[in-house]
Amino acid sequence: MVSTAAEIAASVRAGELDPVQVTKEALDRIAAADGVVGAFRRVRVEEALAEAASVAARPDLASLPLAGVPVAVKDVTEIAGEYASHGSLAGPSSPAEEDGVIAARLRAAGAVLVGLTRVPELCVWPMSDTPDGIARNPWDPTYASGGSSGGSAAAVAAGLVPLAHGTDGMGSVRLPAAMCGLVGLKPGAGVLSEGGWFGMSVHGPLATTVADAALLVSVLASDPSLAVVSPPPASRIGMSTTVPLLRTPVPRELVAAVSRAAELLTSAGHAVSPAAPRYPATMVLGMTARWCAGPAEQARDFDFGRFQRRTRTHVRVGRLIERAGLIRSRTRDRWIARAAEYFESHDVLMTPTLSHWPVKAGRWHEKRWLTNVLPSTRLAGFTGQWNLAGYPAITVPVGRSVRSGLPTSVQLVAKPGGESLLLGLAAQLEAANPWPRTARG
Q1: What whole-number percentage of the chain has pLDDT above 70?
Q2: Which structural domain range is residue 389 located in?
Q3: CA-closest candidate to residue 133, choices 31, 43, 37, 27
């Protein structure tokens, strides 16, 4: 099994591991397994080895938080000498002249960027397939690994790398993390640079342990305090397994994961009781409008005629929404007021992460827009509202399905500034109920 990021970095800092050897081993794992897993759009073999050698020679090696750690980055990231495809053949393919903020912070921390992970076109969907590959769930490759950070989740869950970067606009870190049995954190608004979609999308980590997730988010946010995971204070935790507004049925084993987590957290001294926010009916409109109009805004820099069929429809819908003036701040404000009301009497909300099981892996990019929309909305009933509100949320593994063998998980949500509380609670769940770190064992 691949070591954790924290273990690798500590050994490199102590001179016990060579970053070049660590990188070679990661590249060997990718070469052996990614033909099945499909996690990467581009593997940076020569570049990564050169970066690892540079890390080994740095005079500040002993102080680097991610010293020599192989990290996968989502294919939306500006890396000098590479282009970010955003899962599309329609966009610019000229290499970036310099690193963007995410790559720059990773490199400054000593990470080695081994590759760009597969995403659906414009990161719209919770399944990550492109004309040249399909990101599959390492627990069962007949299932999708999720999206839009599905390639990142697959890379970590398969043990190819210990850490990966993702972005989350409607659940795009938390959903694939849940499907692949990982810890996935969506920081609150303002903690990291915003990733678009009218402020809904943010950057976040995917990891096999809470400590690794905390380490990566601390680097991405340039806030070392986030790397310190402390025992949380006794908290008031509201629990809900009802899909907001839609009230669609949730599979029993996904509901059971919440009950199991509630038992563990109660044993740890927290007060857990059934309670849900008063979700306003306009919340769904606010989320959906931004989910459509955000990619439409991004598409202005792309060749519309080269988009996939489903994307052309999505962009057209988004442009209609923009012209109709449906991106309204009052819709978000109304929901934030309701959320704030809930968190006056609760410290945390706990729900399932997934509102349905993952879809089967396949060439979803060849299917019609509505064929993609229906399973997407069925999966993401618990996640997107927290992007609209800008509240932090984390996915934590709980167990595995008896029927399918796929992971089960819970989502924990806190009010703004609650990232450390969420990490602390997740660490308590991890200590009380350890999960297999990767699909390889």
Answers
A1: 99
A2: 237-275+338-361+378-432
A3: 37
